[in-house]
Amino acid sequence: MNEQSTPPAEGHRSGRDRLAASTTVAEILETAITFEQTARDFYRQLTPKVSKRIRWLVEELAEEEQRHYELFSDLLERDDLDEQIEAVIDRPAADTRFSDCIHLPDLGEKPDDQTVLQYAMGREHAAMEQYRELAESTAAGPIRDLFRYLAAEETLHKAELEKLYYETIHSGGV
Description:
Elements: H1 15-20, E1 22-24, H2 25-46, H3 52-77, H4 82-85, E2 88-90, H5 95-100, H6 113-137, H7 142-170
């Protein structure tokens, strides 16, 4: 058997495997833009359908997603970050779950508070994991700083949603 057809040793990835497991920061940012945009639009459309008890929350979530959308869009426009944006990094393990969040559920015309809160917690968790992993794998600089900031922000949002969920469920609000 020649050297080219020798399978990689256990624990080592072939060139093809490494390529499939990597991506550019630009591709990650484009996925994040889509993630934030779909969430923003989803929450905006959901606002008139939810109960008045959590309408403020859904409006706030839409605003947060808009701010994140703008952050990512602005980064892609910056000429001074071209080198960092085109850098190849390992694809985060959370990437599939993050990308899956682009596909939105149909919560119906009158979704209950519990369902809305569960969905929002799931999105915040996926974003938290994705941004945390990206912060760990991105070179030092403004993009890493942004991912760290967003990971911390999503962690805080998730904790707030969990608290509200607990209060809603255990106060008989659902």
